[in-house]
Design goal:
Elements (H helix, E strand, L loop, with lengths): L1 H5 L2 H6 L4 H19 L4 H18 L7 H15 L4 H9 L4 H15 L3 H13 L14 E5 L5 E5 L1
Helix pairs in contact: 3-4, 4-6, 7-8
Amino acid sequence: MIFPALTSVFYFATEMRCYGILLGLTGIALVCWQHAAEKRWRRASIAGLFLSLTGALCCHYYAVLLWVPFGLAELTRAKIARRIDKPVWAALLCSPLILVVFLPAIRAAKAAYGANFLVEAISRFHCGNLSRIPHTQFCANPCVSHRMDVSGSPSGQAF
């Protein structure tokens, strides 16, 4: 308990983060894909795969990267079995359609931040959050340029 007491971990513990939910939904998707490949509880497994990937994408937009390992695994399985598992591919390809629901929010963010809205949002996050953690002001904070001022003492300035 010394580490949380000496750092700003309590601050981040109170913020609402979806990474635990994302990790849980990824695990559920893996188990469902495995059961669908083994043909155990086939319909429920495919529905669970679809719902867990859709839920993961609802939690975090970076969950779209989950389709890379699932797609590669399914391609490998199709090559070994010499046939395509159409229901599993349907679940994999239809689950990102939930992004249609989020299009108005994505367009509003793009209008608010401009053409580089992702870069602006990420830099605002890092400038606001990394500077609160002790020992990251001089190590990992991309928002602080560490240079020597005229007097020779180090100073950090946000950009």
